[in-house]
Every structure is written in C-alpha cells, then in structure tokens.
Write a structure and sequence with these properties.
183 residues; 2 domains; 7 helices; 6 strands; 33% helix
Amino acid sequence: MTTDDARFRFEVKLLRPLKPGDDRSWAFAVLPRDASERLPRRGRTSVDGTINGYPFRATLEPDGQLSHWLKVSSDLLDAAGVAVGDIVILELVPVKKEPEPDIPADFEKALASTPEAQKVWNTTTTLARVDWIHWITSAKQLKTREKRIGDACDMLATGKKAVCCFDSSGYYSRAFRAPEVGS
C-alpha cells in the first residue's frame, strides 16, 4: 500500500467536550466509521493529517464503538482557522512507523527497579508499549494505576510482551470513549 492509497478524506463537525478539564479551549471530532475502518488498528493510531489544509500529526484515540476520535488543541484550532461547531475537511494517513510512546515517570521508575521487566520491555514492539502505557494511564484512580504498574512489571518479568485482557479498542470493556458533547 502506498502512502497515497492509505490517505483518506472526509468532512466532520468539530465538537466541544462537556468536561474539558483545565483547558477549556480544545475541540474534538469523531471519525465516521468508514474512515476509522481504513486505519491499521482499532486502538490508538498515529496519523499525519490536515484540517482544512493545515498539516498536523496526532494520535487518534479509540471511541469504544470501533471507531476513533481526534483531540484538536487550541493551537491547532487557531493555526487552521477553525472553531467548535465548524464542519471541517480532515485528510488523514496512518504514519508508516508508530512513534515511541513517552513512558510515564512512575512506570519508568518501576521498570528500572525490576531488571527482568525492563529487559522484556526493551524487546517488545512499539505498538505493545503503546498498549501497556495506555492501559496504565487509562486508570481513573491512583490506586488502580499503581496496581496496574505493579501488575505490568510482574507480567513483563515473566516474559509477557503484551497486556493480557486489555481491549485497546474499548469495545468490549467500554474503557475508552470519545468525550461527551457539551454545549
């Protein structure tokens, strides 16, 4: 498949999140199902794209409905000259090589203190590392996150290279969703 074959284009509305957190100026877009089906995986997927012709690189998140959603930062909104409520043209192409994920400091410290886990971590694929980190960082409570870090180190130390029982699409576990739409 060439890059041009992998490129796809569609229109989508920019939405305001109901609970934007501290940064109230971002937006999001949910990909149409047929667009999402053209991506290489149901989990987090990095893409190069344009929004109304303005280039960006982003990681699409699973929406729990076998599709994906895109967070559009305030900087990207401004640079592309778009706003919440606009219908925009997105053009996306999956990156050829998934970028290495940033390892959260608490997980990196735990790996460093467990040499057997660190050794296996270093031999896993980038996509497996993305899933491990997503599993850890998706915990809603600190206690759960700490348990997942310990479990991850234990599983890695025994040679497990992929997260067991983790549905990276969120479809079966409903762990991941697009934000709720605000007004």
